[in-house]
Amino acid sequence: MRRTGFLGLMGFTVSLTAALPASAGVEECGNIRFEGLSNCEVRVTAECSASCSELGIYKTACATKLVPVCKTECSLSATPTCTDSCTTQCKTDCDNGVNVICSHNCFAECTTTRDVECSGATDAVQCAATWDANCDSECDAQCVTVDGGCYQHCIECCGGSCTADANMDCQTTCQDEIFEECEHEFRANCEGSCSGDGALFCGGEYIISGSQVPACVSALLEQGIAVKAEAEVTIGPDGIDGDLSAGMCAYSPRGGASLAAPFAALAAAAGWLSRRRRRSSR
């Protein structure tokens, strides 16, 4: 029986060809922040299974998932020392004509010392993932609505960054205790999705899998991300194994070119090759 699912054919890959703008995590994608991530693709079947088996690919997904879990015990307020120092510098930037925008500047401010602080950690990659997820969560909460000019953006930006700083040690300790369990859970979900809707990976990192993939991809495309669709099909004696005409037309970016033409061309080429093979076998 032919497998059916989100992709509609074997070996289908969706590649995001542009980076997302500096912004909070995408809710439909597990609240993962895509800034800095690239080479995103949905993998199925053998390629998916091979990718899922690597336990180290779940750092970003687990850190993002565990931040709200650990917030129940990691809820310290920003220290005045941190906020005063931050806002003083930020207001100086405003006076010098720098356009400070909370949603753009908070995360950068929050992660300034990440690499140095994580360099001595037992697992530097996990440390950085936890750091980023904690910063993104606090900045998202602080910057969601800012009513005012540059100075007000400074206050909110520093509030988010300094709140994350106050809770960083707590988040790291809390996540360390349950991180491995989270990785195994995501790996099981990933492996179980390879014969169905597949899993989304960016830069080799696991993002999301299974029935959540369509909503995640749609959300990314809604943000205007250019999408390139590629297909690998098996051409047997009876023709094409896979429905190329269905493809991903419904998932093309708003205002972008339809994917129908590339799929039609690929289908025509595959059909031509199939007919040539059948004629040559007579």
From TrEMBL:
Q: Which organism is it from?
A: Sorangium cellulosum (Polyangium cellulosum)
Keyword Signal present in the record's keywords: the answer is yes
Q: Where do transmembrane segments lie in this chain?
A: 255-273
* Keyword Signal in record: yes
- State the protein's name: Secreted protein
Signal peptide segment = 1-24
Keywords carried by this UniProt record: Membrane, Signal, Transmembrane, Transmembrane helix
